[in-house]
Amino acid sequence: MTHAISKHAGRIRRHARVRATISGTTTRPRVCVFKSNSYTYAQVIDDTTRKTLFSVHDHELKAASDAPEGSGAKVAKAFAIGKALGEKLKDAKISAVVFDRGGFAYHGRVRAVVEGLRSAGISV
């Protein structure tokens, strides 16, 4: 008999696979994204020192009007998160990051965070 894996357990397994191959350094930290049903979170992590350098979530941001055409409210907020995180990275003189999608599909809000980072001039 086969047992179905829950959505959460499947995401945790996918995230473990992703994390087995990528790691953030001091010069190129890891940007980790988490999305709940309501909110989106992103944080910059230096895995060598095990420190979170910055974090941004859409509780503290207003919806950005410069989001890509045809995007919904959550996607627009995710784009604003990426852009705000990119500005914080530029202030810290970090120009390149490693992206950790957190086991989520590279689509929608996750992709919008990356597009926001790239629009801020960060190499992903």
Q: Quick summary of this structure?
A:
The chain has about 120 residues and is an alpha+beta fold.
How would you describe this structure to a colleague?
- It is a single chain.
- By secondary structure, the protein is α+β, with helices and mostly antiparallel strands.
- The chain has one domain: 2-Layer Sandwich (Nucleotidyltransferase, domain 5).
- Helix content is 36%, strand content 19%.
- It has 3 helices and 4 strands.
- It has helices at 7-21, 73-91, 109-119; strands at 30-35, 40-46, 51-57, 98-100.
- Strands 3-2-1-4 form a 4-stranded mixed sheet.
- Helix 2 runs parallel beside helix 3.
- The chain is globular, with a radius of gyration of 15 Å.
- The N and C termini lie far apart (43 Å).
Summary tags:
124 residues, Nucleotidyltransferase, domain 5, four-stranded mixed β-sheet, 3 helices, 19% strand
Please bin the fraction of helical residues. 25-40%
Named CATH topology: Nucleotidyltransferase, domain 5
Give a quick account of the main beta sheet: strands, pairing sense, barrel closure: 4 strands, mixed
Mean pLDDT: 88
Give the arrangement of secondary structure elements.
Layout: H1 7-21, E1 30-35, E2 40-46, E3 51-57, H2 73-91, E4 98-100, H3 109-119
Helix pairs in contact: 2-3
